[in-house]
Amino acid sequence: MSYTVLARKYRSQTFDDVIGQDPIAQTLKNAIRTGRVAHAYLFTGTRGVGKTTTARILAKALNCLAADGPTTTPCCKCDSCIAVNSGEDIDVIEIDGATNNGVEQVRELRQNAIYRPARARFKIYIIDEVHMLSVPAFNALLKILEEPPDHVKFILATTEPNKVIPTIQSRCQRFDFSNIGPASIAGQLKSILDKEKIKFEEDLVLPLARMANGSMRDGLSLLDRLISTGIEPLSASLLETYLGCPNSEKIWNLIEQIGSRDAAGTLAAIEDLVGTGVSEVQIADSLIDYMRDLMVVKSTGAESRLLILTGPQRKRAGELAGKFDIAALIYSIATLEKLRWSIKNSDTSRALLEASLLRFALSEHFLNVEELLSQAKSGAAAGAKKKAAVSPPTEVSTAFKSSRQEITDNEPPATSHEPANLPASVNIQSIKNNWQNILRLINAKLGPGTAGLLSSAEPSRFEHGVLMLEFGPAGHTHKRMCESNGRVEQVQVLLGEHFSTPIRLKFETAATQPPQAEAGASQPATGSQKRNELLSDPAVKTILMGLDATITGIEED
Known about the structure:
By secondary structure, this protein is α/β, with parallel strands linked by helices.
């Protein structure tokens, strides 16, 4: 006796059996119950979601011989129902649009449609992959599709509704079949395994359901492949060995290395995955799925219903989510989606994957503008530098500790206004003349972030050992950032060493200037002017300085 694959053996037989398409099933049942069955339907959706199965159920419901008329519960035992299930009913004609796509086949259909059904109530045409019909064939179908004989019904099915011409779509009631959720697929797989009396481990079902990508037929086909191995109980490890699914623990380990910013560990984790035969594209796809789960955990918590994970997987996701922030996960997912297409067409896919994942691992967490401005306002860290630049150079740190004590000891009381004993060469003019050299010194000793912030200021006054730096009218954010993170003390030490005397810093912002009257008709800004305007925007400067970032390109909407 020949073997029947699970996708056929457990095909839905009634509307109540249809998985994941409840709204469509309920609508068709109500149409039958109220006598409002349309003469033409268009079923659309991806493969394996139940289009042809629902078309057969509708055909059985309309032609079931055990009922006096169309019924919502076909018996599935009469000659008509059995013949429809096997695709051999003389009154339910199934046509493959891919091989019968010419105008001659459609003309033959029109000629046969005028004859009444042999034994059933309706003659039903089910045209699968209808988008494969040629344009002349579509045009030949138009008239009978709009005004068919009373005994004729049409059910068209397609995975690409955009290729079905609008004049055909307007003559049909369209139903869009959605992808079936992993939870629904997992429930059906468990039910089938129980009926088949096959032993399995609980951690198998959810990963297998996710591999189906919303297609029930694909899920059953994958299950058939696992059963064919003859190994029981079925376990998640078989997915890696026989279906090429990346090992979940190895993916979690790779994400952990990225979150820990361990470059060597990241490369080792990639090698561990590639060594098992997993392709670079599969790694990218898996990372997208797993990072999506981390994003959900960060947004809604590890117990969210949006997560299709087992208990141990939820716990692991909750632990790893703490190593990332939402901005970093969003950026990583978007980058990986672009990367997977590049990998497919590249001869150096391994290097592309490693370079991108190292970029994630060696980058600090990303902050959006609101978070960065909030942290700057509260005096918190406004985006840490990379590890190599976290600590200032040793000599500056040492000088800071010793010179700060010297400044504290020599600093006059707050009520004293006696001028400090400064060298004659230290005055506001000499500071202004050397300001660019001072900025270069700050850049070399304290990094480009601090130097970039101070480059927006100009020395305005130098009195009683206090140097006043003035920012522009829009420099409030830069002023706050300069006053946070210990920057003031570090710059004071550097200036004290440079001028051989303690110097204190204070900041102020210039008053807003009234707008100047237009001298004439405004000229459109050039590309260079637009770039300069964007680079001078306070929010953009805040992001660049806070994240120690560099602009590589500007795109206009």
